[in-house]
Amino acid sequence: MTCRIVTLALAAALMFLAGCTEVTHGVGNSPAFNAMSDTVHALPGLHGTSGLEVHAVRSIKTVIVHKIAVMPLVDEPDQVDKSLPPDAAQSITAAIYARANELGGWEVVPQDDVDAALQQLPPLTVADLEKNALALGRRIAADGVIYGVVNRYRERVGFDYAAQSPAAVAFVLNFVDENTKQVVWTAKFAREQKALSQNILDLPNFVSHGARWVRAHDIAVEGINGALDNLQSKLTIEPIVQGK
């Protein structure tokens, strides 16, 4: 009887929270967005939200895109972890490239071509990312380039149902328009999974993952999917027509 009451209470809480929680990707020039530092200090977790904040210039719909490129992300650890796993930026870059191809509509420059072009450019550094992205776009004839930094990529310690500490991910993505030489879109993502016992408001997110502890890659993919879906919805995509 007691277990049935607890189960019914949990189900009721889930229905209530699912109805009250709205995931918002586009926040524009909100105070929350402007207050975020370049190193994304929002962790641990933004409970009950996607952890994603997006800003786009008003003229972004006038940006016409046929072909885009994904420049490898670089490490910029935050002041908490101070370091990143050696494969963190590579893993997130690969997930961005995969999602960009999955979305379709635009043509995505093969990563081998991007890597070859980067061999002819100065090494990627945080200070020169926008400059390097524009140079890369010119070299490979892309209309725009996605680039950014990884601030945190902390892997969970433990197992699916018995983790000692949760996974956490934070990154910043930008899209630079080759025509105007302007960054027209920026997305900041920061999320750490929280145990249900730590925050009942995170119940929908916890249950959506099968009530288990997820890996850093799972969190990163959620942020990447939301960010790129938002980016494509704001740009004017005109696929390249063969023979024209």
Write a structural description.
The protein has 244 residues and is of the alpha/beta class. It has one domain: Rossmann fold (3-Layer(aba) Sandwich), CATH 3.40.50.10610. It is 35% helix and 23% strand. A hairpin with a 4-residue loop joins strand 9 (168-177) and strand 10 (182-192). The N and C termini lie far apart (71 Å). The relative contact order is 0.20. Mean pLDDT is 77; it is low at 1-49, 157-164 and 196-201.
Summarize the structure.
By secondary structure, the protein is an alpha/beta fold. The protein has 7 helices and 11 strands.
Percentage of residues in strands: 15-25%
Helix-strand category: alpha/beta
- Biggest sheet descriptor: 7 strands, mixed
Query: How would you state the average pLDDT, rounded?
Result: 77
- How many domain regions? 1
Q: Write down the CATH topology.
A: Rossmann fold
Taking the alpha carbons of the first and last residues, their distance comes to: 71 Å
SSE succession: HHEEEEHEHHEEEEEHHE
